[in-house]
Structures are given as structure tokens and as C-alpha cells.
Amino acid sequence: MKRRDFLAAVGCAPALAKALLGGQESSQAVCCDRTYATVEDAMKSEREKLLYVPGIYTYSGIAKPDYLATVDIDPHSPNYSKVVHRLEMPHVGDELHHFGWNACSSCHGDPTKIRRYLVLPGLRSSRIHIVDTVDPRVPSLARVIEPEEIARKTNLSAPHTVHCLADGRIMISMLGDAQGNGPGGFLLLDDEFNILDRWEKSTHGMKFNYDFWYQPRQNVMVSSEWGAPKTIEPGFKLEDVKAGKYGQRLLFWDWNARHLIQTVDLGKEGLIPLEVRFHHNPTSSHGFAGAALSSAIWHWHRKGDRWQAEKVVQVEPVDVPGWPFPVPGLITDVLLSLDDRWLYFSNYLHGDVRQYDVADPAHPKLTGRLWLGGVLGKGRELQGKKLIGGAQMLQLSLDGKRLYVTDSLYGTWDRQFYPEMLKAGSYLVQIDCDTNQGGMKLNERFLVDFGREPNGPARAHEMRFPGGDSTSDIWN
């Protein structure tokens, strides 16, 4: 696809398209590069029609490469809820996991920054794939950054969260050092996907690493703690928790100075804090974290010159026959709607998705709950497919009206908790969300059954839309 066609396909204003292509006309910065000047602009953008999600074979016993699936999610399309393209990775064993864009709304207004390339890491292989979406329906592999180069230049491994920065660089949280030990750190790539360096000036004060989110107007970044690659790769063990091999802290960083300024220990009620979400409002200091093992939602904010966090939601464990202990919900994903009104989270073991009204962030109100799979026996069937795995990864449309859900967490953990998922494959479903009064309803028309993939049953994880979503963009 030529650049002119690409700009037209993503909705570029004709005058600005001409300017970008070397013509004489010019324009003020407008939404021509799949980025948005404000949160409000993003919420008013065109409805999503395509979705990208990895299909994963790592740890499944199928010796095939993981791949990036393109799913048609246009309800008016004859291919609605079907995989329309599969981009195989060059190697077997990547464990494709979280991924992100080379550019997003943090660099809106710069006509050279286009949301075009997906940065798609392998959590197990430490290999980073650069995927070109110039043809959004048929992505292609543009480049691969090999783990040996990352280890040699930065002594890092196990890439996780990907965020673009305002200047065109890309930042990736890394769970470990080159040997798979904690605490890991943060990798920086330039806008041509060359390795620059590590972001942090020092790892002093870090124990583990996982997710991160930065809020430039507050001059802060927050990061969370899972565990070292050597701990998580073999599978989950309670004795590792007792031995202190998993995190329980939120880390607050000086964004400009790149050093740790404060840690907040969440204690036993905050074990394994995973996803962290600042408000999308760039002037806000409020945010939320989901503590997976403790099954709690924590709300943080700045008070004076200090950051503090309080538990605001608790999911109680449930006794299940055959389990040696009460089963926790295991909150594995959390997200906020762009207007910061609705918070959603998934209980990977219990199997439900919840919606809370967080207009008052310190006092969330439960407004919706929907059961999918899970170990509590409350799973359901959809179009003849039994939903096995508990709700796991979430992605929300820009207007906040459609929530997409997959069920795979991590290969060895899936094999422990949902061994039948490896034979049946994942599901991808869509939930309609009431953005006025609250409430959720499963879309009975929509199902992507990854048990029917050409190379055998695959697992599905994080999702992205070509035009952005509720976890892609940060506003400066």
C-alpha cells in the first residue's frame, strides 16, 4: 500500500495528506495518524473494525510458531468475528504476550509519527518483532530484534509492557536480567527500532518488574511487580510466594529524572500487583492497580508530595472441592474507560468480569458482573463452545461500549489451572457495556473459537485495534 493510500485509509484530512506527501498545502495538526489530541476526540473516533490478537502455541505441545491474528470485528462485514489473516513468527517458542504501538496520542501533532508499527515481544524468547500494519488487514513482519542483542547491550530479558513516548521512542518493561533474575528494568528503542539503552538510571530499590504507566504532567511513572522469569516460567508455586519470590509493591518514579522516588508496600492484601492504570485525564494523579493473588483493587493518588494507596475492592476466595485452599479470584487484568468513569477487571480463576462505577475513585460501586468460564462451575456455552478458561485479558473500545475478552494468562499457568484449554483452544468474546447506568451483556453473535485454528488449538492473549484502545494511549 502506498503512503497516500495509507493516509487515506486511516482518515487523514486531504490537505494534511497533501502536505505530508510533499505538496504545498498545510494544515493544523489533526487526527490523521490514528492518534488523538484529546481523550474526547478519541472517544468520538470511528468504531473499531479490526482487532489484533496473538495466537500462542508455546507450552501447548504444538511445535508451531506463535502468530498474530487479524480479526474482523465489523458487525456489517460478512467475515464478522472471523480470523481474516495470520502472521506467523519466524521461530517456535516465543510466548507472544503483551504488545503495543510505535506511536500513539502522546506524540499527536507530529506528522512524522504514525501509529503504524506494532511492537510484539515474546515473553519467553525475549525476541521483539516489529510488525508493519500499513495494510491493516494484512500485517507483515518488518524486523526482528534478537534476544542476544538485547542481552549484550542492556543485560535485560523477558519483555512485557510496551508504551510509545512523546518523542517517538518506545519503552518496554523487562522482567529480568539476561540470566532470568530480577529485578529487570526498562528498555528503550528509538523510532527506527534500534536499541538505545535502559531508561532507568539505577535499579536501586527494585525487586521485581512488570507493568508501567507514565503521567507526564505529574512527572511520574508507576510500575508494578510480578516475579523474575526464573520464578514464573516453571509455573505457579505457593512456596515461591512464601519465600518472597513475588512482588507486593507499587513503585513511583520521577519521570524526568528517571529514578525511583517512593515505594508503596501493599502487604499481604496486595500480593502480585499486575496491571497499573493511571486516569486518562493527564491532569489527574489517580490510578488503580489489581493485586492478582490477593484479589484486590488498589486506588492510588498523590497527597502532598507523597503517593499513597488504599484497597477499595476485595474479591473473597471461594471453597471449591478438590482445592487445598479457598480459591482466589486472581485479578489478572484491569482497565479504565477513556472518560475514567468505568473500571473493569477479570477474575481468571473465578471466571467473571466485573464493571465498577469509579466516578468517585476512592469508593467504587459494582454495576455489572458477567460469568464466562472459571473453576467455580459457573461457566457457559456460546455458539456451542464451552467457555473453559476464566476471563483474563480485557480490551475496551474507545467509546467504552464494547469490551473484548480472552482467557489465556501464561502458558505454564494455563497448563496448571486450565489444562483442557490447551486441547480446546481459547475464546475471544465481546461484551456490550452500558455507559449510562452501568451493566454488561454478552454479544451472542460474536465468538472467535481458537480451538479451530489451522495448526491446532491456540491460546489468545492481549488485543489491540488499529485506531487505538483504552490502554494504548497516554496524553501529555
Structural class: mainly beta
Largest sheet report: 5 strands, antiparallel
Question: In the residues, how many domains can be counted?
Answer: 2
The CATH class of the largest domain, by name, is: Mainly Beta
CATH topology of the largest domain: Methylamine Dehydrogenase, Chain H
Strand % is 25-35%
Explain this structure.
There is one protein chain. The protein has eight helices and 31 strands. The chain folds into two domains: 1-32, no CATH class; 33-460, Methylamine Dehydrogenase, Chain H (7 Propeller), CATH 2.130.10. The longest helix has 8 residues, at 147-154. The protein has helices spanning 3-9, 14-20, 39-43, 147-154, 229-232, 238-242, 411-417, 421-424; strands at 50-56, 67-72, 82-88, 100-101, 117-121, 128-132, 140-145, 156-164, 170-177, 185-189, 195-198, 212-215, 220-223, 249-254, 259-265, 273-278, 287-291, 296-303, 306-314, 331-336, 342-347, 352-357, 365-371, 381-382, 385-386, 394-396, 402-406, 427-433, 440-442, 448-449, 459-460.
